[in-house]
Amino acid sequence: MMKNSLFAVALVSLALANGCAKGGNGTGPPPATVDVSITSPSNVSASAIYPTQTVTLTATVSNSTKTAVTWNLSGPGTLTPVTPPTTPATATYVGPASAGSATVTAALISSPSVTGSLALKVVDITTVVSPAAVTMSSGLTQQFTAINVPDDAPQTFHWTCTVNTNACATFISDGSGVATYTANDNCTGNCVTISASSTLDPNFCSAGPQNCTSAKVSVVTSRVTGTYAFHFSGYDNAIVPATVAVSGTFSATNGTITSGVEEELTSAGPVQHSITGGSYTPSTADPNNSNEAGTLALTLPANIFPNKFQVVLDGSGDIQMIEADGQGTGSGIAERASSSSLFTGTQTYAFGFTGVDLGGHRVGYAGVFPMIGNGTSGTIAGGQMDVNGAAFCASPCAASGSYSYNPASNMGQISLTLPVPLVFDFFIASGQSNKTNPLTLYAITDQSDPTHPLVSGMMVLQDSTQTYNNAAFSGTTVSALTGTAPNGTNTNTNVSLTLGTADGKGNFSGQFDQNNAGTILSAVQFPPAGSTYTYAASGTNGRYIFQMLGNPNASPAVAPLTFILYATGANRGFLLDQSSSSVMTGTMNPQGKGSGAFAASELSGPYAAATTSNGNPGVTSIAANLLLTSPGSGVFNVSGIEYPGTQAVTGLYTLSVSGNGTIQLSAPSAQNYVIYVQDTVSCSGQGLTCAIQDFYMMDTDSSNPNASIIFAQQ
Predict the structure, then answer these.
(1) What is the Cα–Cα distance from 681 to 683, expressed in whole angstroms?
(2) Residue 559 belongs to a domain with what CATH number?
(3) Distance (Å, rounded) from C-alpha 86 to C-alpha 659?
(4) In this predicted structure, what is the pLDDT of residue 602?
(5) Are residues 630 and 701 in the same domain?
(6) How far is 629 from 283, CA to CA, in rounded Å?
(7) What is the pLDDT of residue 490?
(8) What are phi and psi of 691, to 5 degrees?
(9) Is residue 1 part of a domain?
(10) Is 320 part of a structural domain of the chain?
(11) Residue 486 has what pLDDT?
């Protein structure tokens, strides 16, 4: 969206609205003043008027009984005083047909030296199409949305769809903000361009456009092709139920899975299984988004589960999945594996692992592993980890050991020397060897002795260019946390979303929402007046101590919890609760461009959404195709299909300028969520924030003691 989005432009317009007043000598009665402001439409910013827009200006006179004024316009557009004159005086301004700046001045007729003025800025309408980039399987259908900025511009569009230079064969739009494209054209690769422009723009989305952002579509035979790494955690219904975690890798060609291997953790310990086949099948449940949903089946030995998943795919083809074989519950993710050559061995990885001990109590690890070697084998020296729920060493524990990796199978192993030796298998997932898209590994316990805690999670390449001091955290972040409540057992969940700002000097502030076994804390501001929440670097390897959550508004106030964070880079890393038996674990990430200046319309678009992790067996995992639309007039709709089953989704959403809001669903049932924006995408070459790329959702109904965190991504 426009770089000076709602919050920023509101501040500008407020400053400009305080018109210049003249008169008075500082003695006697206060001098008369004139203030010029936009009073209709009520949500219009003086610095974001669209071309030909009509606004009502009001001249408010203070400290004088005579309120008649004369009006003057300097700059483009037209200004017409309302007649007969109103009290206070009003005038109608109509913007020019193109961008420009103007100043409106009102002067008291009784004292012409007393004036007030308002600067007006007319900006061209910019149209944004989402998703901005997407892979599509041949024959499938994908929805696209468009939004006109400024937000109060008419939400009517002229759509185009071209394959190379020809019109697309199957493209449908009724001129609203939603269109569908079916990939029936004879082309491969990045060959389709979908554009929309405002119907007020006479040039539409012409070559070299300045005011529209097009979507790029890459057509492929099947979206599931290549080598993937995957991670899953959940519960087996047949065993008590017992926790289950799986990490592995598989290869697929045009939706057919040919081979793979997985490491599964059960109450009996780890077991390795060969994946000998399988398939990805697109779903027909949502005909408008058949490109986003489907089922993934893995051919495993008899009676080995999970082996079937309901999945949703984001624009780049990442697969979010929930179990769909009737044997248990859980959720996970599969991502196309990066080249094994990116794993050089001389790299440091930060990690976050979660699991259970033999008693079923939740366990969490976080730390760093410096891996020094040649890419296929080497040592781990100077490592460090913190633990919660598995007190086999005093945190932080020094960690050293060795590793090996087989590129042919995309599988490696880490052996750590600790008071209780630990062994993990790992698989290379997504990313590159850089700080903007760091290499990610999925790891899982590989212990022959089942008395060890059974954990799994992620390892992310740490940004080696960063100095890990307090200054490394300076900006707005979003933290997503999942735990159990109480006492670390599989009884209810404790989940939270936090929007926090670090000042680079050790102070942490913001707000959070929390659902602790049905006890709801809503939009809690921290720290309380006269107090502080802090963070501090602990050493130079990326370990930090953060104060989060608590309840500063309670009486007496509930002190914040202590979290350990191991950074993967500036403003991001893995979090581990050190204060409670809930053992809350999760991630912190930068909020992205546009922090503190979001508009609800930026959420317009199709999203693939799924549960990120299950804190206990009572969590109902979901996957969904969500379609968020902004038809104008301050209405923001939610629709789509939710799985399991094929349940229609309907509802409304809101979003504040700081990037948090709500989703209120009326179907498939009445549900209330808070949403926290994490990342945005920018218009190519325009320096604008175009759309929100992903966000988190959390159930805030007190009737649900088993809430979860849901991740939605375009």
Answers:
(1) 7
(2) 2.40.128
(3) 39
(4) 86
(5) yes
(6) 22
(7) 61
(8) -160, 165
(9) no
(10) yes
(11) 67
Distance from C-alpha of 77 to C-alpha of 94, rounded to nearest angstrom: 6
Measuring CA to CA, how many Å separate 293 from each of 135, 285, 311, 312?
13, 8, 6, 4
CB 167 within 8 A of CB 132: no
Instruction: Compute the radius of gyration of the chain from its Cα atoms.
Output: 28
By CB atoms closer than 10 A (0-12, 13-18, 19+), residue 674 is buried
Query: How many domains does one find in the chain?
Result: 6
The answer to whether the peptide bond before residue 527 is cis (omega within 30 degrees of 0) is: yes
Q: DSSP string covering 458-474, please?
A: EEEE--TT---SGGG-E
Tell me, what's the pLDDT at 489? 57
The residue among 91, 107, 122 that closes a domain is 122
Amino acid letter, 239: I
Segments of the chain with pLDDT less than 50: 1-25, 683-688
Residues 501/475, Cβ–Cβ less than 8 Å: yes
The verdict on residue 107 lying in a domain is yes
Question: pLDDT value at position 14?
Answer: 29
User: Is-contact 307 328, C-beta < 8 A?
Assistant: no
Helix (H) or strand (E) segment spanning residue 17 = helix 6-17
Residues 370 and 480 in one domain: no
Residues 6+ apart with CB under 8 A from 307: 297, 298, 299, 300, 325
CATH code (residue 180) = 2.60.40.10
Instruction: Give the pLDDT score at 11.
Output: 28
- Note whether 74 and 95 are within 8 A (CB): no
Secondary structure (DSSP) of 385-453: EEEES--SSPSSEEEEEEEEEETTTTEEEEEEESSS-EEEEEEE-S-BSSSSSB-EEEEEE--SSTTS-
pLDDT digits over 381-430, tens only? 999 999 998 777 788 999 999 999 999 999 999 999 887 788 999 999 99
Phi, psi (rounded to 5 degrees) for 109? -65, -35
Amino acid identity at 500: G
> Do both 668 and 695 map to the same domain?
yes
Nearest to 697 by CA among 632, 628, 645: 628
Using CA atoms, how far residue 224 sits from 117, 138, 437, 492, 639, in Å, is 60, 12, 21, 35, 26
Residue recorded with tokens 């305080």? 18
Left, alpha or beta for 6 (phi > 0: left; psi -120 to 50: alpha)?
A: alpha
Residue type, 97: A
The answer on 362 and 332 residing in a single domain is no
Same structural domain for residues 346 and 426? yes
Domain boundary among 278, 306, 336: 336
Identify the residue whose tokens are 């004159």. 85
441 exposure class (CB count in 10 Å sphere: 0-12, 13-18, 19+): buried
pLDDT at site 689? 53
- For 288, phi and psi rounded to 5 degrees? -80, -15
Query: Edge-to-edge, what's the strand order for the sheet holding 54-62?
Result: 33-40, 54-62, 89-94, 78-81
Instruction: Tell me, yes or no, whether 595 lies in a domain.
Output: no
Residue type, 148: N
| Structural domain boundaries enclosing 195 | 126-220
Per-residue pLDDT tens digits for 292-310: 999 999 999 999 999 999 9
Type of residue numbered 686: Q
Give the Cα separation of 345 and 461 in Å (integer). 11
Six-digit token string for 163: 């394959």
The reply to whether 454 and 478 lie within a common domain is: no
**Residue among 396, 499, 390 nearest 447 (CA):** 390
Structure tokens at 427: 């698989």
Burial of 1-19, coded b for 16+ CB within 10 Å and e otherwise, reads: bbebbbbbbbebbeebbeb
Which DSSP helix (H) or strand (E) runs through 594?
A: none
Specify whether 582 is located in the same domain as 646: no
226 Cβ contact list (under 8 Å, min separation 6) = 251, 252, 336, 337
Alpha-carbon gap, residue 556 to 541, rounded angstroms = 37
Question: Sign of the C-alpha dihedral, residues 701, 705, 706, 710?
Answer: positive
What letter does residue 341 receive in the DSSP assignment?
A: G
**Can you count the helices (H) and strands (E) in the chain?**
1, 51
